[in-house]
Amino acid sequence: MKARVRFAPSPTGFLHIGGARTALFNWLYARHTGGMFILRIEDTDAARNTQEAVNVILSGLRWMGLDWDEGPVSGDATGASKGDAGPYFQSQRKENYQRRVEALLARGLAYEQEGAIKFKMPREPIIIPDVIVGEVRRELTDREQQDPDFVIVRSDGQPVFHLVNVVDDLEMRITHVVRGEDHLSNTSKHIALFRAFGVEPPKYAHIPLILNIDGTKMSKRDQGASLTTYMEEGYCPEALVNYLALLGWSPKGNREKLPVAEIIELFDLPQILRHNARFDLAKLQWLNGEYIREMSDDRFYEQSVRAFARAGLDTSKYSVEYVKAALDTCKGKIKLFSELPAYAGFYFTDDIKYDPEAAARDFTSENKPRLARLREALEKLEAFDPDPIGSTFKTVAQELGVKTGVLVHPVRLACCGNPAGPSLYHLIAVLGKKRALERIEKALAQIAR
Length: 449
Ligand code: GLU
Description:
- 46% of the residues lie in helices and 12% in strands.
- The chain has helices at 17-33, 51-64, 94-106, 142-146, 161-171, 187-196, 227-232, 237-245, 260-266, 281-294, 297-310, 320-328, 340-344, 356-362, 367-380, 386-400, 404-416, 424-446, and strands at 4-7, 36-41, 70-71, 80-81, 88-89, 110-113, 116-119, 126-130, 134-138, 150-153, 176-180, 203-207, 210-211, 277-278.
- The longest helix has 23 residues, at 424-446.
- It is elongated, with a radius of gyration of 30 Å.
């Protein structure tokens, strides 16, 4: 069956990672069934409704690759399909809500009270057949026993969430409402409204929440709660999509890296897990590293240049060959692009700051003549390539009667400023003879006699 599903965020200026996962599950289900993924902006609260807040949602979904299928083409509210259409905005659909409220009033299913309009809620328990949670029986609470009816239009004329949400799901012929479990408490109201309109409600699938790794509720302020963070830190959208899909949904087998095409093929609602999922940033970062390892050189290059620029390192001052050669020594070595400036920023500045602990250990008076001897040997090299550079280290070490490591550590520190980084002989070759020797000289000048 071709599903018609929707993602219905309110523009709060923030796209929570849980919301992003809800959007993803809806999109996956639409693509799996060959159906429609509708984006509906629930913006009836005019006070919070800004273009900027809407853009946060649109850019986030675009970044994840979640394309929506349907909606009015700009300036036209009739609902065209595909192409540049959509999203739907509730603020442009006010007549629908009014018409539906009038129908309820006319049939005696709603009434006016002190300027507001209230819906007559049935007194019997309501059964919610949920695809994930199972069957939920919702009785009226003690307070609701007194007055179960609820406001659908406020006295200032504003239609309320429950009403607009249901009217749109109905008119958009939504077949499955896939949303966060926090909405389960609203669903009996929604089912009652559907029935009042004489329509069978859609199927419901309430997705368990995303918790922090320690099991606490993930709030807006928690690290990694906002999708924007991942966009800004240069994560690969494929990695995040892969991670989020497997966060609370599990295909058979224990695979962790699944390309989106395969996820679409396997995805189904009943396999969404019933328990809350814990957000494991370390695992996401590992997965991100896997996607970086496999990305094309061109894309790696482009993303890396951006990461350096964000850290204030301008790679455009260097030749393209130099930048590419430098980046070749980083591929497969990083999990996040944001690690790059610390890992390989030394390629793009001559202002090397030595890690103080490593400097105390490696820039010793004992090492000074060794370093000077190595410098001399490197200067004589004709082909400044990794292999001859490596042999030079070994020959000089032998001659001095020390292990190669004795030379490796101070030279690395001289060239990079810190004890970790790309393979040493390769990075020296990339720096080139002039730059590498200058750095060793500068280090020598630092070392006290
Ligand atoms: N606007 C609601 C929200 O952002 C939509 C809930 C739903 O998906 O029905 O939570």
